[in-house]
Amino acid sequence: MTTKATRAVGVDIGGTGIKGALVDLQEGKLLSDRVKVKTPAGAEPDDVLAAVRSVLDTLGVTDDAVPLGVAFPAIVKNGRTLSAANVADTWIGFEAEKFFEDGLGREIHFANDADVAGVAEARYGAARGADGLVLLTTLGTGIGTAMLHNGILIPNAELGHLQRANEASDFEAWTAYSAVERERLDWPTWVARLQVYYSHLEFLLSPDLFVVGGGVSKHSDEFLPLLKLNTPIVPAVHRNNAGIIGSAALALAQETGTDAGGVAQDLVDTTS
Ligand code: BGC
User: Fold this and answer.
1) Ligand 1 atom having least distance to the Cα of 74
2) Ligand 1 centroid – CA 4 distance (Å)
3) Does the predicted TM-score (pTM) go above 0.70?
4) DSSP calls for 64-88
5) Does any ligand 1 atom lie closer than 6 A to the CB of residue 138?
6) Residue of minimum CA distance from atom 4 in ligand 1
C-alpha cells in the first residue's frame, strides 16, 4: 500500500524537456500523470526555475508535504552545478540547489540526471540485484552516464564527453540521439556509431552490464540487438521515467535518513 511515507515527487530537467510526477517508492511506479514542459530556450536559471514551478503547480504540489527530488543535466557537486553541456553557461559553478530551494521555498534533493536514472534502474529496474560494474547510458539530447558498482553509485561519471580519437568532437556530439535528429541519420549509421562508443566503454571499463535509457530506449529492439559486444546490453525498464523515479527515491531517502533501497546509504548525500 502506498502511504505518504513512501511517496515523493521527482522532477527531471533535461536539455529538451522538464518532466515530473508523483512516485510510489514502494513499487517504483508513477502515481500521477507525467507532466512535461519544454526546457526554455537558452535554459537560463530563472526560466528553468519558472518551468519547474509550472510542472509542480500542474502536479498540485504546492507545499512540502512530500519530498522533492530534482535532477539536472550537469555535474552536481555539493549542490553546485559544475558544467553546462546543454544548458546556459550560467550554471557553471552555480549554487543551483540553493537557487531552487530559495525559489521554490522548500528543501529539495539535487543530483545529476543520469546518476538518478542509474539509481532507479538499480533499485527498480534493469540493474536490480546486478553484481559488478553496471554502466547506464542515457541517449537523448546529450549522453548521460551512471556507474554503479555492486549497487553503489560512483557519482558524476561524464563518459558521454569522452573525446573521440583524432576528432574534434566528443562521443556525445556524435552519438547522442540528438545527432540522429540533427544529422537525419538512418538506423544503420547510428548503430555503427553506437558500436564504436560501446566498444570503447567496454575496453576502458570492462563492465558487467550496460543499461540503455533515454526516450529512444522504447525502440531498443531496433538497435541494441545489432551491437556486437561481450557485455550484455539491455534497455532501461523505466526508459524516460528513470530520472523522475530516481530523483524521487533519493529525495525520500534524504528526508527519512534511510537508504535508497538496495543502494548504499553513502551515495545518498554525495551529490547534495
Ligand atoms: C551532461 C551530463 C548529463 C547528460 C544527459 C551531458 O551533456 O554533461 O551531466 O547527465 O548530458 O543529460
Assistant:
1) 9
2) 32
3) yes
4) SSS-EEEEESS-EETTEE---SSS-
5) yes
6) 144
| 121 within ligand 1 shell (Cβ under 6 A) | no
Cell of 269: 548525500
User: Which structural domains are found in the chain, ordered by start?
Assistant: 4-116+240-269 (3.30.420.40), 130-239 (3.30.420.40)
Q: For residue 64, report the phi and psi dihedrals to the nearest 5 degrees.
A: -105, 35
Tens of pLDDT, residue by residue, the chain (272 residues): 566 689 999 999 999 999 999 999 999 999 999 999 999 999 999 999 999 999 999 999 988 999 999 999 999 999 999 999 999 999 999 999 999 999 999 999 999 999 999 999 999 999 999 999 999 999 999 999 999 999 999 999 999 999 999 999 999 999 999 999 999 999 999 999 999 999 999 999 999 999 999 989 999 999 999 999 999 999 999 998 999 999 999 999 998 887 654 444 444 444 43
What is the identity of the amino acid at 259?
A: D
Return the biggest CA–CA distance within the chain: 55
12 lines ligand 1 (CB under 6 A): no
